[in-house]
């Protein structure tokens, strides 16, 4: 995520914990004078400045990073062509049918041939009684930086599934979007039917999504309707949705699985640095900020560690488990949510937010993001490496418990800087 010049977290009431740094006598002496906490009015101006320049918690729809597939990419089509292929709200329809190769028993398939396909008008009728909203960070499985954090609105997929009147032999749901009528461009994802029908472990439902941050989806964000799977990486949240297949197959058939990806791993908890000066004067306090992706296992703390590059590293300690990590401060909920939401208020109801106050019921929110900040003590001249990591709610330190890249990035972030 690139820092954006939004007014963010202007009135936090916390600063940062002090940091234990293996940086020599000068670093230790500076550390001993740092307060454990400080009020906003006492915050070092350099730290306050970088906090004020943090990106907002919600990302503006137009500021989401894009990794769309297709040649041409469907969102690049002009309006006339999008109307022709059913990518506008007045022309969109969704076919929900049995998988021809592994048939599920359904009594009412929704098809264009029978003029029973599910339309945007049908979706809005369901939305009157079934619409849900929830915050979710959208992340590509193989890209470390999240694409954006949004408040997504839609109708649970199960409400449409039940319209087909399924009776038996239904084990999996798979789906795809518009792909320029070219089989080679088809991109498909899938879910166990149990995940569609039931919201386990306190998760929001899988939805047919039509709004982001209270605004109709744009073509680039997958308009008119996309799938959004709350706990999953972005490849599960297919854009420009056109077909849903109800299947008796037992295994996943995701297109993403063809490239050696783990298609069933949920979002991991990890953190990265946003701002850290490249060159710092000796003895000068060092402001640092970053973000954390709050994955399926939640976020207990963010920790940091600065190492002098001349120090000998501990042999065999691949994940730096023996390093003297110290806690950073996870910044509290913002006053400015960002994302161009109306009246700077999270709409009611939104899962995870109190309907009376509009404030989050817990913090940080799972499946979303949080920011953190730190003011490191001044250091003597030298070259250093800054690292940060998360500890999830189960006590697992990043990159554990799933350090493998194909199930989502979780490598410990490191940034070099010089004191001179």
Automatic annotation (TrEMBL):
InterPro entries reported for this sequence: Mopterin_OxRdtase_euk, OxRdtase_Mopterin-bd_dom, OxRdtase_Mopterin-bd_sf, TAT_signal
An example molecular function term from Gene Ontology annotations: molybdopterin cofactor binding
Gene Ontology process terms (BP): sulfur compound metabolic process
All copies of domain Oxidoreductase molybdopterin-binding, residue ranges: 113-250
Annotated region described as Disordered, given as residue ranges: 62-82
Name under which the protein is recorded: TMAO/DMSO reductase
Source organism: Symmachiella dynata
């Amino acid at each position: 995520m690139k820092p954006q010049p939004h007014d963010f977290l202007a009135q936090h009431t916390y600063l940062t914990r002090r940091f234990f740094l293996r940086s020599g006598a000068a670093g230790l002496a500076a550390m001993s004078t740092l307060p454990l906490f400080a009020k906003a009015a006492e915050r070092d101006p350099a730290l306050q400045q970088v906090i004020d320049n943090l990106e907002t918690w919600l990302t503006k729809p137009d500021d989401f990073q894009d990794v769309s597939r297709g040649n041409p990419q469907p969102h690049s089509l002009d309006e006339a062509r999008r109307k022709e292929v059913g990518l506008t709200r007045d022309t969109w329809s969704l076919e929900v049918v049995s998988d021809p190769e592994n048939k599920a028993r359904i009594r009412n398939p929704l098809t264009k041939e029978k003029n029973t396909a599910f339309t945007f008008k049908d979706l809005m009728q369901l939305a009157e009684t079934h619409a849900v909203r929830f915050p979710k960070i959208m992340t590509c499985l193989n890209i470390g930086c999240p694409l954006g954090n949004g408040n997504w609105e839609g109708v649970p997929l199960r409400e449409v599934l039940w319209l087909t009147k399924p009776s038996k032999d239904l084990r999996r749901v798979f789906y795809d979007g518009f792909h320029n009528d070219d089989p080679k461009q088809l991109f498909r994802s899938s879910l166990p039917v149990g995940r569609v029908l039931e919201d386990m472990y306190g998760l929001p439902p899988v939805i047919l999504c039509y709004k982001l941050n209270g605004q109709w989806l744009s073509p680039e964000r997958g308009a008119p309707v996309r799938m959004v799977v709350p706990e999953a990486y972005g490849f599960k949240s297919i854009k420009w949705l056109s077909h849903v297949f109800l299947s008796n197959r037992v295994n996943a058939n995701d297109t993403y699985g063809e490239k050696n990806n783990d298609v069933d791993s949920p979002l991991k908890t990890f953190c990265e640095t946003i701002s850290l000066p490249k060159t710092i004067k000796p003895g000068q306090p060092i402001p640092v900020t970053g973000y954390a992706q709050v994955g399926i296992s939640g976020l207990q703390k963010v920790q940091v560690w600065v190492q002098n590059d001349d120090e000998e590293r501990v042999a065999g300690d691949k994940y730096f488990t023996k390093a003297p990590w110290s806690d950073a401060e996870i910044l509290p909920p913002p006053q400015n949510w960002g994302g161009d939401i109306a009246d700077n208020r999270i709409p009611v109801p939104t899962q995870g937010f109190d309907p009376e106050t509009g404030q989050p019921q817990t913090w940080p929110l799972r499946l979303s993001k949080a920011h953190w900040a730190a003011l490191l003590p001044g250091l003597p001249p030298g070259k250093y490496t800054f690292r940060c990591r998360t500890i999830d709610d189960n006590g697992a330190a990043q990159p554990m418990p799933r350090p493998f890249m194909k199930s989502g990035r979780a490598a410990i972030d490191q940034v070099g800087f010089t004191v001179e």
